[in-house]
Each structure stands twice: as C-alpha cells, then as structure tokens.
Design goal:
Helix content is about 25%, strand content about 35%. The chain has about 350 residues and is α+β, with helices and mostly antiparallel strands. It folds into two domains: about 240 residues, Rossmann fold; about 110 residues, OB fold (Dihydrolipoamide Acetyltransferase, E2P), CATH 2.40.50.140. A six-stranded mixed beta sheet has the order 6-7-8-3-9-10, sandwiched between helices. The protein has a five-stranded antiparallel beta sheet with strand order 13-12-11-14-20, with no helix packed on it. A five-stranded antiparallel beta sheet has the order 15-19-16-17-18, with no helix packed on it. The termini are far apart. The structure holds adenosine-5'-diphosphate and magnesium ion. Magnesium ion binds next to α1.
C-alpha cells in the first residue's frame, strides 16, 4: 500500500457508500407539549444536496437530529435506501455531521481529530493516518495535520470538522448551520467548497441553514420549514419564481406586497394590469407579490405609478430605491447603480409585467 495524499476518501477498494436515498415519512417529534416536527415528509435523492431553510425555532435542527438518531421520533419513519433505520443507534446510521460551533477536540491535532472516528472503528494506524491526510487534502488543509484548534482560524476549524465527518465514508452528510459563526467572506468561500466536495463525492447531504442566500446558492433543492413542517420544497429557482405562499415569498428573496384585485385571470394593482402566475386564481381582493427587480424607475412623464423617492441604497453591483407611491404604498425598486435617485425626487414606478404570485386578502 503506497501512502497517498490524493483527495480520495472513497477508495476504490471499498464498496461505494455514497449516494443513499434518505426519506422522512410522516415524522413527528414532540418536546413536552411543543410539536417541533409534525407531518414532516422529505426525500433526498441519491447524491442530492437539500437545504433545510427556515426561521429560528422552525424545527430544522430537530429534523437533522432525528435523522442522525440523536432524537427518537414519536411518529413516522426514517428510511435509508428503503430500509427503516428508526430503531438504529446513531453509531449504526453511518452519518457524518458538522455543527455550527467548532467542535474539535482541543487537545488533539487537526489530523488526530480527523482520525478519531477511524480509531473508534479500529482502523489500523497506518491506514488511519493515510485516510486522515487524504481527507485533510480534500478540504485544502494537507499542511495542517499537526495544528491544534487554537492554531486554526474559524474557517479552517470547520474544514477540519468537515474532513472528520467525511473520513469515515458516511452514507449521508449532515450540516447544521456549519457557516453561521464565520465572517461573510469565509462563509461564501466555504459554502462553495462544501458544494464542490459534496458534488465530487456524490454524497447525499442535508444542509441546515436560516440564511436564504446560502440555501439558494448551494442546494439542488431547498425545503422551507415553518412551525415544524415543510411549507414548500423545490429548486432554488422554483422557490424564487413560484413561491407557494406569502411566507415563502417573504422568506426567500425580497418581495413588495401590494393590494390588488383579481378579475378575469389578471391582477390589477393601482390600475396596472399584471398577468397571474396562476391564471386559475379566483376573482377577488388579493395581495400581490412583486420582486424589486421586476420594477423600474422612469421620468415623471412616463406611464406608471407616480411617487416620491424616500431612500436609495448603493449595494455595490446594484441599487435599491424605496418609493412612496402617490396611491399610498411604499415599494422597493432594484436598478442599475448609474441611476442615483435623490430623496424627495419625483419619479414613476413601472412594472416589468412578469407573472405575479398572489394570495387572497
Ligand atoms: P431550529 O433549528 O429551526 O432553530 P429546533 O429544531 O432547534 O429549531 O427547535 C424547534 C423547536 O423545538 C423550538 O421551539 C425549540 O425551542 C424546541 N426544542 C428544541 N429542542 C428542544 C429540547 N431539547 N427540549 C425542548 N424543546 C426543544
Ligand atoms: Mg437549529
């Protein structure tokens, strides 16, 4: 056996253990009288990265802990490749986990931290060392084998935690807000790295986050949670363009909410006629959701809704401007940075006319 630092933690002499199908089937979990999960159904396809997105307290961590076997379900089943694992202990479920807080053993080096799970499995020392080195190489830390946690940055510690989770060749990777404690730039770098590694290994991954940018950026599909259940699951683009409820429209991206009226398959907002995302929507008063990028500003002579600029914020590659419409609502308009509207200035808001989601009001 030749020593290797090649980033290959799934060795060809081992049966492939990645790409498992994971299924939550009607799972419920209660803490005292509080239902942390209820009628929770979700299937992760083999090799898929699903982001579990939701506000704090919506049950994301509970779902992950139930899958890992750290909590027992009160109802329902957890299936891996069709087999019910609900009765199995955590150690028998074969999952790699990374948590938000740095969870490295402080008295062990990075390499020893990564080796830890292998030692528990009685892997011989030479193979242990080789596999730990390969896992550290996978996360770009091959030079840091001997470093201790206090000699590593937060981002590096989370990379070590990821290597430690992957080195046992788990069937499923579970990440619970793994980037929340990191600063913005490292957060973006590391999420891209996680995505690259996850794709390379083809490992089925559940990525818990409360950060919608993060979820949209890394996931094949996003499952949005609310009060212990999944409100909508879909590709990032589906969630963004076809939000199933006002909760989703608000939580995923930014939306203006405007009062409207549906008649004959169209929505009317302050006299502007917009196509409906769902043309079968019943007639009647509604709330209309319009993305800031589907609005634009024009000169006072243009057709559209007149208003007064309240505030304009420079965001680097774009600008967002709030306008108080004469008709009474305030909207946020996203536009190019070369337009610099001034507070108090008169303007006209125009609609791009893309189909809009609505909700009866
Ligand atoms: P999230 O990860 O989305 O923030 P959690 O899954 O941690 O949400 O929690 C969901 C709900 O269950 C919350 O209301 C939380 O207070 C409650 N909860 C979580 N763990 C426990 C526990 N061990 N005992 C009692 N309540 C809990
Ligand atoms: Mg949590």
């Amino acid at each position: 056996m030749s020593p290797t630092t090649a980033p290959d933690v799934t060795r060809s002499d081992q049966p492939a253990r990645t790409g498992s199908v994971v299924e939550f089937a009607g799972v419920a979990k209660r803490y005292g009288t509080h239902l942390a999960l209820t009628e929770f159904d979700l299937t992760l396809q083999a090799g898929e990265l699903v982001a579990l997105l939701g506000p704090s307290g919506s049950g994301k961590t509970t779902a992950l802990r139930v899958l890992a076997g750290l909590e027992r379900t009160d109802h329902g089943r957890i299936l891996i490749n069709g087999a019910d694992v609900s009765g199995l202990a955590t150690s028998r479920r074969d999952m790699g986990m990374v948590f938000q807080s740095y969870s490295l053993f402080p008295h062990l080096s990075a390499g020893e931290n990564v080796e830890f799970g292998l030692r528990m499995r009685r892997v011989p020392p030479i193979e242990r060392r080789e596999r730990a080195a390969a896992a550290l190489a996978l996360v770009g830390l091959d030079e840091h084998y001997g470093r201790f946690a206090h000699q590593l940055s937060g981002g590096q510690q989370q990379r070590v935690a990821l290597a430690r989770a992957l080195v046992t060749r788990p069937r499923v990777l579970l990440l619970d807000e793994p980037l929340s404690a990191l600063d913005a730039k490292v957060r973006v770098q590391l999420r891209e790295e996680i995505r690259r590694i996850q794709t390379e290994l083809g490992i089925t991954t559940l990525f818990v986050t409360h950060d919608q940018d993060e979820a949209l950026a890394v996931a094949d599909r996003v499952a949005v949670m609310r009060d212990g259940r999944i409100e909508q699951v879909g590709t990032p683009q589906e969630l963004y363009t076809r939000p199933a409820s006002s909760f989703i429209a608000d939580f995923v991206g930014l939306s203006n909410r405007l009062p409207g009226l549906v008649r004959h398959g169209f929505a009317e907002v302050h006299g502007v006629i917009l196509p409906l995302l769902d043309p079968s929507q019943a007639d009647g008063p509604v709330r209309v959701f319009v993305r800031p990028e589907d609005l634009s500003l024009a000169g006072v002579a243009a057709d559209g809704l007149p208003g007064t600029v309240l505030l304009s914020s420079f965001l680097g590659s774009l600008r967002r401007t709030s306008v108080r419409l004469d008709a009474g609502d305030t909207v946020v308009v996203q536009h190019e940075v070369r337009f610099t509207p001034q507070p108090g200035e008169r303007t006209v808001v125009r609609f791009a006319g893309v189909p809009v989601p609505v909700e009866p009001s």
